[in-house]
Amino acid sequence: MEVKIGVQFAARELVLESTQSPAEVEEAVTTALGSETGVLTLTDEKGRRVIVPVAKLAYIEIAESAPRSVGFTAR
């Protein structure tokens, strides 16, 4: 699953592939928004962690990963 995180004052969004379900990611975001520490932590499919302060979040987009086509394909 692909997660895009918009961060305030950052030129590009953070994009990560996660093995978590959309419901798990949504729960992590909701928990982070309500926590005292105010930090969102997500782990990508390679085990790397992304930590973003909730105060700097602009948006979060949760989407299923689209299979990438290889070579020349007709659509």
The chain-level structural class is alpha+beta
**Total count of helical runs of at least 4 residues:** 1
Strand order of the largest sheet: 2-1-5
Per CATH, the architecture is Roll
Distance between the termini: 23 Å
InterPro entries: DUF3107 (IPR021456)
Protein name: 3-hydroxyacyl-CoA dehydrogenase
Pfam families: DUF3107
What does this entry look like structurally?
A hairpin with a 6-residue loop joins strand 1 and strand 2. The protein has one domain: SH3 type barrels (Roll). The longest helix is centred in the middle third of the chain and has 13 residues, at 22-34. It is α+β, with helices and mostly antiparallel strands and 75 residues long. It has one helix spanning 22-34; strands spanning 2-7, 14-17, 39-43, 49-53, 57-63. The strands form 2 sheets. A 3-stranded antiparallel beta sheet has the order 2-1-5, with helices on one face. The chain is built from 1 helix and 5 strands; from the N terminus they run ββαβββ. It is 17% helix and 36% strand. It is elongated. InterPro entries: DUF3107 (IPR021456). This is 3-hydroxyacyl-CoA dehydrogenase.
List the keywords:
single chain; 75 residues; alpha+beta; SH3 type barrels; 3-stranded antiparallel β-sheet; two-stranded antiparallel ribbon; 36% strand; DUF3107
Question: Topology of this protein?
Answer:
Blueprint: E1 2-7, E2 14-17, H1 22-34, E3 39-43, E4 49-53, E5 57-63
Antiparallel strand pairs: 1-2, 1-5, 3-4
Give a brief rundown of this model.
The protein is α+β, with helices and mostly antiparallel strands. 17% of the residues lie in helices and 36% in strands.
